[in-house]
User: Fold these one by one.
Assistant:
Number 1:
Amino acid sequence: MKDIVIIGGGPSGMAAAVRLAEKGYDVAIIERKEELGGILDQCIHDGFGTKIFGVALSGPEFAGEFIEQVQKLGIDVYLKTYVKSVEASGKVKEIITVSPDGVEIIKTKSIVYAIGCRERHQFEIKIGGTRPAGVYTAGMVQRLVNLYGILPGKNVVIVGGGDVGMIVARHLYLEGVDSILVVFPEEFFAGLPRNVQQCILDFGIPYRPRTVVKEIVGKDRVEGVILVQVDEKWNPISGTEEFYPCDAVILSVGLVPYTKKLTDIGAEIDPRTKGPIVNEFFETTVRGVFAAGNLVQIFDYVDDAVESAYLAAEGVEKYLRGEERLERPIFINPGENVRTLTPHRVEWKDERPITAFMRPAIEGKAWIIVRNERGEILEKSFRRYVRPSTLERIEISRDILENAEEVFIDVRGL
Ligand SMILES: Cc1cc2nc3c(=O)[nH]c(=O)nc-3n(C[C@H](O)[C@H](O)[C@H](O)COP(=O)(O)OP(=O)(O)OC[C@H]3O[C@@H](n4cnc5c(N)ncnc54)[C@H](O)[C@@H]3O)c2cc1C
């Protein structure tokens, strides 16, 4: 029987595995693809690892650093192995896998799920019209272009002004497509300013804010889209419809944690992050089952996803050692101007500060405040600039939580 099985061999899964193997535990990684690395194999741009390694690596380079450590530590890796179902209620957990070798049951004392996220599709953003060939998600395009050398089309409309949409726009420009138009409903790009400059403005790629695709037009292949302008509440402004010819539509409209496998074993889900409810060491509401990386919430930077995996690894160790928990959990709740917040509660006796990841709902100079239910400020820290597109990492001291049943995190603009 294994001490820990990690499901998912992306950067988060590998990071948790490495940390636990270094501590001497018997670890295995199960990955459905033919190699480790997760989505990083298709992200050939640089910008990965600036916090952990202090340099901007490409996705495959970043993954390579961890793959090397996995190999050096002799961690068991099951590739081309899909986790079909899990029985996690008892102390001994059973993972049923399917691989070219057949169906297998792997027994383990604990599990870390690190299976990442999925891309939102056109049905989730209510695009009407026909369903011809030529409609892709951004991740699909990255795979086609970067791994297989296939262009999605020659005249491309990209829906979504976040980081992924901008990165894909620059990439297609450099690969030589004839035309690109980026449309998005916000007043300005939602992604990092660095990407607006380096991916869009530097290359003069055309974009239209406050614009969405209303319909896709085409029978067998995309022939164009109906664009429509929207107001500040994203409602279409009638009379502004316009046919725009193109042969590919690329959707980059957000990522959603892939939680089906966790709900199957009874883990509770946070409707804000759409990921599992976790404690300060990323343990889900099922004892001995932990989660890490983009499965918990969407991390902008792989470095933060890796940090969540390191925290999960610490939690696994506490679980395996049978360390003491608090008599009852202390809840950490999103307060004023907070869109998402992880973790959701504090459950273990420990001295280390609690690392939390929070997405603000406002933009500008702000205080991040930890307060109790009576509104008394327990701790605060200043930020020169917060914005919804940037995840904030905060540390909460444990001593301020003494005697508290719950605390709230607020973001207060100045
Ligand atoms: C287009 C794009 C650009 C990005 N650019 C940057 C950047 O410039 N800098 C930066 O720091 N970050 C960037 N990121 C973010 C970064 O890539 C992610 O934070 C990171 O990859 C998350 O890692 P993960 O291990 O949680 O998930 P993933 O990398 O998605 O890994 C999950 C793994 O789980 C496996 N899996 C899923 N289901 C099963 C199953 N049932 N059984 C077995 N295995 C399974 C999958 O095959 C996959 O290998 C970018 C992300 C995207 C999408």
Number 2:
Amino acid sequence: MLENTPSRTAELVALMRALENSYYGEKSLLKDKYAARFLSDFYMTLFNRLSVLPDFMAFFVNIGSIGVFDFINLRHAFMDAYVKKYAPDLPLVLLGAGYDSRALRLAEYIKHGVWEFDFPATQRRKKFYLRNEQLPATGLHYCEVDFMKESLQEIFEKLGTPRTPTIVIWEGVSMYVSEEIVRSTLTTCGKFFGPGTIVLFDYWHRTTEQPVRNLAMAFTPFLMELVYNERFTFGAGLDEMRKIALECGAKKFSSFSGKQMMAKLSLTSRLPFTSAAMAVVEF
Ligand SMILES: C[S@@+](CC[C@H](N)C(=O)[O-])C[C@H]1O[C@@H](n2cnc3c(N)ncnc32)[C@H](O)[C@@H]1O
């Protein structure tokens, strides 16, 4: 990740959400009308080219991305469901928020404030593109941080994040950090916010039971580094992830594959990436 440059992967996932909105219209899972605003010229050109012939292109884009397109939108919708359920009662913390627009899209459910943490470069760009938006009445707090330079505990203390049970979303980030950071993030969230806190994050499976897929997976970190300067570093299997979460003080750990998320969201027609999963960690 280039420290002084807005995150490119955050823009890539914004492109996926913008396309999902354009392909599915009224049936869109996310209806993220803000996502397209964050696209720079290159991504906007891609968006315009890929928006034509929605029925055909939605399938083509998903197959072309080996199911990453559907996985990314499913994980976002799955997390949205938790925000709708819990944000009326709990504060919401977004770690590595990128161009997440929940603070605006789901404002009606968020009754105890949102704390968005990200690199200054990404966050300032986001604020610029949202400068004319009416921000939610219950409070949106932008917090500029570098998770690699300060401990999460110090960051929360310095910024005065409330020490009450919280819903924490850590979306699309765990694969770019070390196992040590994954452990310290989970432990700190559990200890700082206390019992009743829920941490939602997706994680990458470094290996699967399919040897051919494993061969392709071995190239993923290098490909991400080459294209985005953001290298995949952390990966874990389901049992490994459960062990880590429990060692970090979780009371309950659940994990959902793309297909299981589809079942939870009562969907049948998506083909999500199978080498990643969604973790729900309850403290
Ligand atoms: C793949 S993007 C995901 C963005 C957002 N959560 C989403 O799903 O749309 C990863 C985000 O983590 C942020 N990030 C990565 N490393 C970070 C660090 N060391 N400190 C703060 N933010 C970081 C990036 O700026 C980027 O916004």
